[in-house]
Amino acid sequence: MEVERKETKEKREGLDSIFLKLQENTRAASNNDSPPLVVEPKTYVFTKCPSAHSPKTLGQLQTELRDLKDEMDLMKTQHNKEIKLLMNELDEEKKIRLTLQLEIQRIKKHMSK
Question: Which residues pair with 56 in a beta bridge?
Fold first, then answer.
């Protein structure tokens, strides 16, 4: 499981760098009056992943990158919801603990009289 996460992270980082290079080339071409740079799509094969035996085009990688970013956003949203739920549960437990402590103090006071 840990190896899969690491491989996925490496893939995402590789895709992010490819996407950034493409954006830089596009910006550089649009800012100059010179003819635009011709960027030929490269194919990448991730040999560690069994489903990636066929070479992928730049468009496929961009689509995959978009999908991974969307999935990451969804995971962040779910994580934040879970954190909020856990914080609420913790607050409830704190209230219960305080109530029990007060009750114990009352009983101790009553027993000492």
Answer: 44
